[in-house]
Fold:
Amino acid sequence: MMNTDVLIGNQDPILTIEKEVMFLDGLNEVEQLSADASVKMDYNAIVHCRKGLVQLEIGGKEQVRVQAGKLLLVPARKLLHPMMVSTDVDVAILLISDRVLKRVLGPQLDIWNRAMYLKETYVIDGQRWTDALKLYSRGVFKGAELHLFDDIVMAFLRVLLLIICEVLLQTEPIHKTNDVSTDRDKTLFHQFLDLLSQEQQKRQQVNYYAEKLCITPKYLSTVCRKVSGKSPIHWITDCVMEDCYQLLRSTDLTVKEISNKLGFPNSSFFGQYFREHAGLTPIEYRTKNAV
Structure:
């Protein structure tokens, strides 16, 4: 049964359904999700730029510009931070958990996943469901006492997501990609990503995660490459660096304290690791991103 709660916001409150689907009507509500306007999403994000221009930092380093009429698709577990917005910007964001995404899309979930794992962020034309999203945000989601509210929301979500999947199917990289992974491969891959997201100290060897999944490191590597086209090391490093970015940007912890928290042997090694992957030192990154 659906349960709609108001989380935050005044004139345009953020609404949540079972804390697994959220609608944010404006960037101000993104900023309220954390003190420094950065939030590590445990949700798949659909950012719809209705007017103006917004530039967002994804994963702590990649910057993406989203113009009016465009959608930015961001997979779960990515750090999302507004960097620059035009004065006339009007943005709406849908946040959807993996569980609801799977429930809503069913067999078409593979289309979304293949797009997200291959490219990790996607900007597509949003014109096809602009009017639908307006109805969704102003009517159904904030509406009222509907006897079939849960069914209406799930049906509406399915329509919106299927339209997005149709656009993704028509893009060159997705259309030409041969998916050779099995259902078991996909299940193991998702379990691997879940393990990564739950670990405080993510910088572990591949065999650490393989052992937890009761498979060999070689098999985990094969599964990751078949499903995502990327190695386990890619995903481990990506998650470690997002934790680094988030702690440097949104906490007052010293570099040594962050190093210890993330399981590095010492702050010197942490600095070398960070510079190798970010192209600058932790202090330089913190200074550059100071509010």
User: Anything to note?
Assistant: Residues 1-14, 34-39 have pLDDT under 50 and may be disordered.
